[in-house]
Amino acid sequence: MINDVSVLIAGKAGDGVLFTGNVLAKILKRSGWEVATYRDFPSNIRGEPTNYSIRASLKRIYGRADKENILMAFDCESILKHRKRIAPGGVVFCDGQDVAGLAPRKGEKITFHKFPLRKLAKENFGHEIFKNIIALGPLTYILNLDFSIIKEVISETFLEKKGKEIVRKNIKALFLGMKEAKKVIRSEECHTLPKRKNGARLLLSGDEAIALGALAGGCRFFAAYPICPATEIWQWLAIHLPRYNGLVIQTEDELAAVNMALGASYAGARAMTSTSGPGASLMMEGFSLSGMAEIPLVVAHVQRTGPSTGIPTKTEQGDLNQWLYGSHGEFPRIILAPGTIEECFEFSVKAFNLAEKYQCPVILLTEQDYAQNLRTVKMFDLSKIKIERGKLLSQPELLRIKDFKRYEFTADGVSPRAIPSLKNGIHMVEGNEHDEKGYRNEDPENRIKMMKKRMRKLKKASQELIPPKIWGKKEAEIGIIGVGSTLGPIREAMDQLEKKGIHSKFLQIRTLWPFAHRAVKRFLEKSREVFVVENNFTGQLSNLIQSQVESGVRLKHINKYSGRAFRPKEISTPIQKAV
Amino acid sequence: MRNKRDYHLEAPTWCPGCGIFALFDALKTTAAAMDLDPEHMVVVTGIGCHGRLSNYFKAYGFHGLHGRVLPVAAGIKLSNPGLQVLGVSGDGDAYSIGLSHFIHALRKNINLTYLVVDNRVYALTLGQTSPTSSLGFVSKSTPYGSKEVPLDGIRMALAAGGTFLARGFSGQSSRLASLIERGMKHKGFALIEVLSPCVTQNKLYSYEWYKENVYLLEDDSSYDPRDRNHAWERLNAGGKIPVGLIYEESRPSYEELVLPKKEKPLVFNDLKIDMPKFENYLQKFR
Q1: Helices A17-30 and A147-162, interaxial angle, to 10°?
Q2: What structural domains and CATH numbers belong to chain B?
Q3: Quick one: how far is CA A79 from the chain centroid?
């Protein structure tokens, strides 16, 4: 029985690969399956090769599979490029003139079908654009999908923006695709998954989940500069924040974005900016001001392949150090790293509470991999949402204070905060070293006390941060450590290892800073061998662990830095070889 | 009715004779004349000698990074439009390191008052050439003379869509105060450049030099500050420096365009979300 299937749609940028894939993903999700997509798009708009993988499974999945089962190729080149990734029993559809290469090679158990998408589109509908819906014909037929669900999704896709006539035409195009598919597809080629109930689930990307979390978490001011792969956060908020009396503003650069967010936050708004590596470099100065002036700030940073402009549309975990050690001077910071779409939402809500409670910058560090790709998730638990504003003073509270000190030396290091327009709250917010009232002060004793005050905030914060999560068998001797998007391939690699009789466990780091050194130390001590899996070259997570935890365990490394996410086998194979 | 003392927090420690004293005085005069509530005022300053102003003037104060006065001020104003938000920068802050913010604030026409204290030198770092220093200016950074032409902030502001452009002079404190008052009352972004001698680091542009090289636009009854062509002509003419209100136009402010009317400022919103409405959004992901 099939319980997992992966469909690859490939062509050139501009072919509509994303559109076809997203419609298919939604149909699969409505059919009750778990879905994870993976886009491998060029950083241009038209002409370069592109592919989009849509995977469906009966169990929870968090990333791409080792192999593809079905390939829908909008051109012949795509087949040459991807045929080595097609699993035995796989099926290939190709719309191309040059079909000479379509015969199976020796030992290759793949079926090839010439499928003239463009010709069918032009002859029947007068326009090539219908090829994208026609392509869904053979795909939905081979997956044996329910026609009523397909119809429902297509109607939803076009009705609002294009109207009834376009819906009708597209359903006709889909029918045509299915009819043509019936002629060529044999029953043994079908990849049928058992039907499931749709249930209370959602299909969305990490960027969308962060935006939803921001709105639910009280964010009402968002300033940013466009950058891949973070722009989707903004695009969603741009539509919805104004409906909640919030404001989204496009700034001239990231310097302005971070400083505008700081201004808004100082004035009392929950403020956020989003960016990726190059923009984050420009934000470093403002990051430091947030730390020094103790202004709450939330930065959603979606990592892409660096350095410099790198590969803007591809994934990497190369910016951990940027936030761990970035900017000048020393100041408290909190770095949250969600590993799933649910965590993107939860941590996004939490980021705003932490920023206000500890009056410091909070970074939500994600990656292109799950930020721009879709996953099915359980309906978010909205009952957990709480807005905690820490020591932000109300007017009556402020009036009761005899001598208000914005940077008062307190036991936990967090001082009361007043916003402009309140009576009895006049103070300075200073980027220079300052006294308790915020006025510039260079006295050495004051400096020491202020440094200690700011730095001790994290001591309290570390008690309520999100602890690492252990997956798998706690008693297993093989340990794996990872952060962020590697969660998906690591968990599947563990299943693959288990089948080979190798028991393993996985420590998912969820807060990069303050570092959970005790939990990590315990994990290391209870493992015979530990592999740190990272999407980067230098092993930034591994270096962090080694700088924070003393233990006799020597860490082994599995690194990938091609700009692509791990496939499960790329983790399970080296572990299997090493143990 | 408040008086000047209500805005005086502390005696400034600028060099005796510094042009910023006049600005400090003019600001207090304006605030008193307009009877502004200090608790509803925010003074945002940049890096440079002017930056200390927020330490001396009694109001909410924000002393941030070099060149970033305008984004901070914009964030404050847009979050709580009821506040009177003043940005203060030097020539380096506004026209060099913060130049892009300057241009884009003018385009957006956010309702801020922006005072640029121009002393034609980097004074706090002990004397380097600034973007407004003249060609050939000799300083610690250009010992063989500056090879760059000076930048005219007001001319640039007119090109960028500025809606209130004025120039004052530290040697004329009461005129400066009235320009600031007009700027504060302007609906939109008000730029007031203040020619402000640095008595320590810039001997070239002294009070005497300015007195000889400025003229008052108000003395010319034919000058119409609402006529863009008049403004261009004066700014392009060269020679003596025009002082006074140079250009003014009415254009909706950014807040008028983006912030819903009659609602509370966004800082006073109840952040608790309407769950049924939110769940309805989630339906789009079903």
Answers
A1: 130
A2: 4-285 (3.40.50.970)
A3: 29
- Domain residues for the domain of A519 are 469-578
Pair A235, A366: CB distance under 8 Å: no
Which of B40, B60, B266 is closest, CB to CB, to A269? B266
**What CATH number does the domain containing A159 carry?**
3.40.920.10
- As a whole number of angstroms, the distance between CA A33 and CA A198 comes to 7
The mean pLDDT value for A100-128 works out to: 88
Q: Is the peptide bond before A307 cis (omega within 30 degrees of 0)?
A: yes
pLDDT of residue A100: 62
Q: Is residue A390 included in any domain, yes or no?
A: no
Residue with tokens 């007068």, as numbered in its chain: A126
Report which secondary-structure segment, H or E, holds B167. Answer: strand B164-169
Average pLDDT of the residues in A8-18: 93
Residue with tokens 């638990």: A381
Of B40, B73, B268, the CB nearest to A263: B73
ipTM over 0.90: yes
Contact A293 B75 (CB under 8 A): no
Q: Give the per-residue pLDDT at A42.
A: 86
Measured between CA atoms, how close is A216 to chain B, in angstroms? 6
| CA–CA separation, B155 and B36 (whole Å) | 31
**How far is Cα B20 from Cα B53, in angstroms, rounded to an integer?**
8
Q: Are residues A179 and A222 in the same domain?
A: no
Do A253 and A362 reside in the same domain of the chain?
Answer: yes
State whether A349 and A493 are in the same domain.
Answer: no
CATH, residue A378: 3.40.50.970
Alpha carbon distance A403, A425 (integer Å) = 9
Question: Within a domain: residue A389?
Answer: no
**What pLDDT digit, counting tens, does each position of B22-71 carry?**
999 999 999 999 999 999 999 999 999 999 999 999 999 999 999 999 99
Q: Which residues of chain B have pLDDT under 70?
A: 262
> What's the pLDDT tens digit per position in A266-306?
999 999 999 999 999 999 999 999 999 999 999 999 999 99
Neighbours of B267 (CB within 10 A): 24
What's the pLDDT score for residue A98?
A: 65
Q: What stretches of A135-276 show up as alpha helix (H) in DSSP?
A: 136-142, 147-162, 164-184, 206-216, 231-240, 254-267
Last residue of a domain, one of A199, A223, A258: A199
Average pLDDT, chain A: 95
Interchain pair A428, B52: CB under 8 A: no
